[in-house]
Amino acid sequence: MIDSNAAVTLSSKKNKLVKIACNVHKFGGSSLATSACIGRVVDIIRKHCQLNDIIVVSANGNTTDALFNLYQLAVELQEVTLLKPVQASTNKQLNTLHAQLLNTIAELNIGQALLLDELLNASSAARLKNLLSDNIAQISEKLLSDPISYQHNLLAFGEVWSARLLSAVLSESVCPSYMLDARDFLLLEDEKNCSIDYSESEAGFAKLRQPGQLVIVTGYIARNKQQQACTLGRNGSDYSATIMAALSGARNVTLWTDVDGIYSADPRVVPLARKLHRLPNAVANELGRLGNPVLHAKTLQPLKNHNTHLHVASSFSPDISGSEIGKFGQIAKQELSVTSLNDLILAKSTSFLAKSGVLAVNEFTPVCYNLDEGYIVVTQAQQKSVSQWLASHDTEVTFKPVAIIAIVGHSVAKQGDMRARFKRALKHQPTLHFLHSFNEHSYIAVLPEPCSSEILNNVHADMTKDAKNIALVVAGLGNIGQRFLTMLPKQIARVSGLENVHLVGLVGASKALINNDGIDVANALLHYQQQAQPYDREELLAWLTNHPYDELIIVDITPSEDFSQLYQEFFARGIHVIGANKWAASSSTENYQQLITSAEKNNSLWLGNTTVGAGLPINSTIKELINSGDEITEISGIFSGTLSWLFQYYDGITPFSELLADALTQGITEPDPREDLSGRDVQRKLLILARIAGFELSLADIACQSLVPETLRDISLKEFLSRTTELDELFLSRLTQAQEKACGIRFVARFANENGQVSAKVSLEELRHDDAFAQLTPCDNVFKIKSEWYQDNALIIRGPGAGRDVTAGGIHADLVTICQQLNHRQQQVKIKGLN
């Protein structure tokens, strides 16, 4: 979630400052609601914070709501009753709140000590209780005398108590810390718009900073120029957090809340909403303005002139990558959201026409407006002030209750196809107006009735059904890898299931190029040559853990056993793998089963149809038969394109060594031909097919005849190539014996299951010339499958078993298959209390 440069610097005990970069972390009320929640927050601070960071907190749980209810009760009772009933009623609610807060302190001190690592000692708990009791007594007195003027000071207590408690806990268990009341330095320049006097506030904050300690700042509250307490409105603590970032020049702001990111719609209303991993600043601003439940309308304002990234993450699932807001490339700009607001008023008047309407827009900051037609849309709470303003202009006005639904995305109002699609999605709903937002990042429909959850779900489904972004990382840039990349632009253009696939990574043996904003597929190899950097395993896994995409697919076209050993790490992160690499699928039985289990547990897809037969659909055919209820009894054939070529052409006239040299020159063999002649490659392929067919085998269970004499097995490649003539007599003898029986020689793989008895081997066999395995085009593979359904007439699959085009094509077929499955998959929304 946090940039890797902002490394962990606070351990489980008190620690010294390690880095100087500053970050702001804000914890919402739900994140601090109980002693257990506070324990999670402390753990997050240990892992993600450093001593010069800034922690901004909301009031614990529903404390602010309780204080506001208390204020309303005091005002209502004072208007109609005597002082004693006021005091009795307010004290009852105040005592309830007092008891709840004392209970939280007690749990941190005693009840949860073992669970929360003794977060608070007895003396600290006693001090907090005494301060709380003094505050409760003060509140009781002020509510009795003058509740109206005391409103903002009353509401400020929630944040003060929260900051005080967290600071005490951190000082006891993590690091030195102190709390700051934002009213002591945060000055409002304009109370109506909650705009900040940054010059005075920055100077005041600097004077109060204490070096070598972690500061806990109250969110939501500030003071005006008359030195009176003020509050910053709904989700004001988020606004406080970005204000603190502006004051301190912080690099990152993380809003820790009860949802693991920003979604394409309110996930509490739209269950199929998808997480928006990255949003451009302007789009996020528009989302906040139009009612996104996570983003406060003013949250991003303080960051306008700062190169700061905003993160949204869940304190209940801190290891899940959240959403990031900042400056991004084209892929992030393609994200689309649907949002709605009810309880609005459409006000129409001649005073809202043309230039005079500009005054109204500046006065009321409407949700949307059309000055050509003379109307603005504001909240119901603004109706009275709009009426008063128009009265001073001596013009008439009509008010109509309305709602809005909007699509939000980068320059979405300029996209004709999107506007048309939005209108089609609403064709069965009555609408009053369609209009652009002033910044072109939203297109809004004004509705005469409230926007129901049904409307929101239907429009969201129509507008975002193709919106899932899938990241693609290609590992292995040899012949086949290069051909795969060459084919990729055309595939993306013509296959609908690949529309939202973005190439973001190219990984070679020692260098890698990772670009979250995407790599130009048409020039991918050139970009790799120019920009790739050395990498290690940890760096690669760190990026893969925090990638900003809905899904990530790794295409492994390496021959590397070391790279295949990363599959377990990939699956643990929910990453999907397309493997042309045979090592993982033919590894030890224990490792293979662990991989299968891990992939299933983490909903990772693992396809590897090109591990056997290049582009031939042998793996998928066997899998489909098994999934359909069939039972495999035999698998046999010629599985090596290299050995197919050699023995199809070998006639005894041309020495075998010359034929082998020719095949090596053409690239038909491996660089070391012994890899082919050893039979190990065919052995691994047979093991892979047997496992797909449902049999628990290992390599040791498959007899393998090596065609390399022992004298040539352990020498250097150079020496082997100089001594290949030693193979001539051996193969000529085998061919002559076969020809005497009117046969040829072929390297054949055979697996059989007879009444539960399994046998498997790969070896050089003598086959009649009319045998199906003997009548192949050089380099072809052939697979014969017998099963309960294909017993008398075996299923035959035959075709090229090697080659750049067919293998790369087979990998592309896997890519299409996996993307089709992922595009129909829905991710679970992580919201506390909902899941």
Description:
The protein has 835 residues and is α/β, with parallel strands linked by helices. It has four domains: 23-259 and 294-299, 3-Layer(aba) Sandwich (Carbamate kinase); 336-464, VC0802-like (2-Layer Sandwich); 470-611 and 817-823, NAD(P)-binding Rossmann-like Domain (Rossmann fold, 3-Layer(aba) Sandwich), CATH 3.40.50.720; 618-802, Dihydrodipicolinate Reductase, domain 2 (2-Layer Sandwich). It is 40% helix and 21% strand. The chain is built from 28 helices and 33 strands. It has an eight-stranded mixed β-sheet, with helices on both faces. A hairpin with a 4-residue loop joins strand 16 and strand 17 (375-379). Helix 21 crosses helix 22 (656-665). The longest helix is centred in the first third of the chain and has 29 residues, at 83-111. It is elongated. 47% of the residues are buried. Residues 1-20 and 110-117 have low confidence and may be disordered.
